[in-house]
Write a structure and sequence with these properties.
Elements (H helix, E strand, L loop, with lengths): L1 E2 L3 E3 L4 H4 L8 E5 L5 E5 L2 E4 L10 E5 L9 E3 L6 E3 L2 E6 L6 E2 H4 L8 E5 L5 E5 L2 E4 L3 E2 L4 E6 L3 E3 L4
Antiparallel strand pairs: 1-6, 2-7, 3-4, 3-6, 4-5, 8-16, 9-15, 10-14, 11-12, 11-15, 12-13
Length: 156
């Protein structure tokens, strides 16, 4: 599952922030650069460092779990740099929004696709952009593939 938060955590260390899900159900957490938080032997090893509010994360589990992010709200119009290649991005709005509207600032020649946790995509088919995601939702992260750099700014 791709996860995100629109909260800048008071305590951003991944080991502290995710302490409620550091159990036998968690396989790993990965960021866009491929760094992971994972268990090696009896110890959890934080290769990511701190939670970054504008980034999304891939969380692989064998069961359900929940953690709470407490801190200050990240302004919805905070710019998120997206670079050529793949990266996970945070969804900053506090309400659901049509993916075409949410990602309108990067829809164009440099965007290849945007994928959600279920594999649904916003992508170009022929001359038309097709929204297979539907609505974006808070706490969800999204995988963005770009051919060139851009800046994502969610509408207010």
């Amino acid at each position: 599952q791709f996860v995100s938060s629109n909260i800048l955590p008071d305590e951003p260390d991944m080991l502290i922030l995710l302490s409620d899900i550091l159990n036998e159900n968690l396989n790993f957490v990965r960021n866009s650069e491929g760094a992971t938080l994972r268990k090696i032997g009896p110890n959890w090893v934080n290769g990511i460092g701190d939670w970054i509010g504008i980034e999304g994360y891939l969380v692989k589990t064998n069961g359900s779990g929940q953690f709470i992010v407490e801190g200050s709200i990240i302004p919805v119009d905070s710019p998120i740099d997206v670079e050529a290649g793949f990266q996970f991005v945070s969804y900053l709005p506090e309400f659901e929004m049509d993916a075409m509207e949410a990602f309108s600032s990067i829809i164009g020649d440099n965007l290849v696709y945007i994928r959600d946790s279920e594999g649904s995509m916003l992508r170009k088919i022929g001359p038309n952009w097709v929204n297979g995601i539907g609505n974006c939702a808070p706490t969800q992260g999204y995988l963005v593939k770009m051919n060139g750099d851009g800046t994502l700014v969610y509408p207010e």
